[in-house]
């Protein structure tokens, strides 16, 4: 026990932000050839609470740590859920974990998508979600919340997803579920296969006939940075205010706490001021500068 004031006993915080909490993999599901979803239970029994869009630093023991968004929905009881794309040492070790293995988790960190809580006022605006590939992971919980909010009076929900090939579309069961629950769900692939009868083309090609009201909507984007820049530009061309466009940005994350500076973008530290940031103004300028 530590004492903040003489004579007043306070509980030592049970979790330190730099100390990973051991979690056991309780379920594992392959989503695509290179994406795996893991469900995790903390060994200390204390499940963490988070907001949709936040991330954890997830560690493969003896290999290293990577920033991974929570792909579950806040407020839904059950194990912590992360979906990982196998791109390097840490993500490969996580993707090859088996049920029963231990991994480390510290967090949650960063900003969220700002979806109104159920006890708030219904938000009448349309919400347009645009995701590329594994970019759907940090949006998945937000979509669950938005689809639920629609049922109690909030605006329409449009889920537009793109992938390089049909086999790389993630969470296809969720796409069907959201459509059944009233969302407009459209998907497209860059390269079709003989079995694919859907749309072919970049995700931006879905915007113009999706049916949302550009003058009364907000947009949430996550995917490769170039995709988000082109999508933000296309939304602006359709009349969506860039101040109502939100993007989730990836940078090299180390501490997750705004201490080390690895995740800097101009004046922003994206582990603290992001990953979810408003696109308009400064962020648009910074992202467009990088491409010059
Ligand atoms: C906020 C946030 C949320 C994220 N959420 C998710 C998520 O939900 N799921 C997910 O799968 N990923 C997510 N990521 C991405 C993930 O953190 C990175 O892919 C991470 O780098 C993986 O670590 P790694 O050791 O497996 O790969 P790394 O070794 O870090 O390699 C990652 C990629 O970068 C390339 N690379 C590595 N080093 C260099 C270099 N020196 N120069 C150029 N390219 C290089 C690799 O070729 C590879 O394509 C998120 C990132 C952030 C910041
Ligand atoms: S990761 Fe260290 S400051 Fe952001």
Number of helices: 5
> What's the architecture of the largest domain, going by CATH?
3-Layer(aba) Sandwich
Poorly predicted sequence stretches spanning 5 or more consecutive residues: 1-13
Largest sheet: 7 strands, mixed
List all distinct small molecules, including ions and cofactors, that are bound in this structure.
Answer: flavin-adenine dinucleotide, FE2/S2 (inorganic) cluster
What count of domains describes the coordinates? 2
Question: In percent terms, what proportion of residues is strand?
Answer: 25-35%
CATH fold call of the largest domain: Rossmann fold
- Which superfamily, in CATH terms, is the homologous superfamily of the largest domain? Nucleotide-binding domain of ferredoxin-NADP reductase (FNR) module
Can you tell me the CATH class of the largest domain? Alpha Beta
Tell me the span between the first and last alpha carbons: 55 Å
| Count of strand segments | 17
* Gyration radius, rounded: 20 Å
